[in-house]
Amino acid sequence: MTINKLFKDIEEAINRLYSYPSKDVILIHHDDADGLSSGAILCKSLSDAGYNVKLVCIEKLMDQVIRYIHTTFKGKVIFYADIGSPHADVISRYNNSGSLVIILDHHDPSEATDETVLNINPEFYGLEGEVDASGSVMAYLFSKYLDESNISLSKIALVGAQELPSQGGKLVKLVYEDVDKVGLDIDLKEMFKILQILGPVGYYEDGPKLGVKACLEGLTQDVMDKYRLLEERRRNANRRMLAILYKYGLRKGRYIQWFDSYNVYKGMGTKVIGSFCSYLSYQKRLVDQDKYIVGFMEMPNIIPGLMELDGRWIKVSMRAPEKLRRLIESGRYPGIVDVLIEASEKVGGVGDGHKYAASAVIPYENRDPFLHELDNAISESLGK
Ligand SMILES: [Mn+2]
Q: For labelling alongside 300, which of 7, 18, 33, 359 has CA 20 to 30 A away?
């Protein structure tokens, strides 16, 4: 499998798109800077190609959300950008040939099992998903094949690519070559930083829409005002959370240390609890070096512009202090995502992430059983 095969599959997807009877597109995209860049690129290129595009920004693809999307928008074209590949199997099940589905993502994929679900991911072509491309790079390559003039969108692809550990990935390099042809007139790092606030912190107040607008129209006054407001609000919330933890400490399990943020981050997107846990992992005076860090935040039960969620849900974020990270690296302690997925599934939740950082959504009433399952999962993995 090679890069050429990837381009052939992109062309094939475009042919399927053109021959599909509906011109209505539901564009599902992730809420971080990469997801907003991906959404902006596809929104522009598909609108220019004559499609009616409805943008929907998603923090986490829960089963009930996938089911809702594929029931409500049956017969339309459904795009997933920077999100979706890990859930291609579930998407296939709920789509059941009801819509044409095109996934452009770089997260570890599962296999699509329905021929109407096209799961385009670098991992299928001998490339590394989190090295060789961002979601925005995949969205851009698709758009460039859709119409060569979309080369003007290459700079937006590079904004999303800032999330990658290096800028030397194989597909990223191709985008840099295109940017060289059209010129770069934005500060990639600054745009990335602003989108990382607008999407995740402003998730419940139209931040993602402003982020997509910023990609396409630049850093206008309304974008900057909202960015500064959200940034300050989050800084204050972090300070408050830190003060609470200094006063009361974290609660301790056998292998975990945890806290509930209750209403400290109320109104913000749930990614803020993950960022705070990352920050906490470096605070040596606050955290035990050999216990996993677990933070909770209640999730509003709405997906803006899409639906209301059934049930009451809580977001869980998990990180490791420095010493524990080394133990995970050496294989002596279990990776975070494995134990988190195991424990959350036992209480009716769903999780994802990697060895050093992961998150899950679980039913609100199952917080304490979840903590118990988590300690158990770690204990079993350690064999003690
Ligand atoms: Mn991404």
A: 33
Across 19-156, the runs of DSSP E, i.e. the strands, are 24-30, 52-58, 77-81, 100-104, 117-120
pLDDT digits (tens, 9 = 90+) for 354-377: 899 999 999 999 999 999 999 999
Q: Are strands 302-303 and 292-299 parallel, antiparallel or unpaired?
A: unpaired
Cβ neighbors of 165 (< 8 A, separation 6 or more) are: 130, 131
Q: How far does the centroid of ligand 1 lie from the alpha carbon of residue 142, in Å?
A: 16
- pLDDT single digits (tens) 238-251: 999 999 999 999 99
Distance 120 CA to ligand 1 centre (A): 14
* Residue 296 near residue 260 (C-beta atoms within 8 A): yes
Count of CB atoms within 10 A of residue 378's CB?
24
Helix axes 221-248, 207-217, angle to 10 degrees: 140
Residue with tokens 């986490």: 60
Instruction: Provide mean pLDDT across the span 170-177.
Output: 98
Q: For residue 21, how far is its CA from the centre of ligand 1 (angstroms)?
A: 30
Length of the chain: 384
Q: Quote the ligand 1 centre to 288 CA distance (angstroms).
A: 31
As a whole number, mean pLDDT of residues 301-308 equals: 97
Does the pTM surpass 0.90? The reply is yes
> How close is the Cα of 354 to the center of ligand 1, in Å?
13
| Ligand 1 centroid from CA 35, angstroms | 6
Average pLDDT, the chain: 97
Give the CA-trace dihedral at 325, 357, 167, 170, to 10 degrees.
100
Give distance in angstroms: CA of 106 to centre of ligand 1. 7
- Distance, CA 274 to ligand 1 centroid (Å)? 16
Distance from the alpha carbon of residue 308 to the mean position of ligand 1, in angstroms: 25
The 10s digit of each residue's pLDDT in 188-210 is 999 999 999 999 999 999 999 99
Q: 249: phi > 0 → left, psi -120 to 50 → alpha, else beta; which? A: left
Domains of the chain as residue ranges with CATH: 3-217 (3.90.1640.30), 250-382 (3.10.310.40)
Task: Write b or e for each residue in 36-60: b if 16 or more Cβ atoms lie within 10 A of its Cβ, otherwise e.
Answer: bbbbbbbbbbbeebebebebbbbbb
Site of tokens 């079993």 = 380
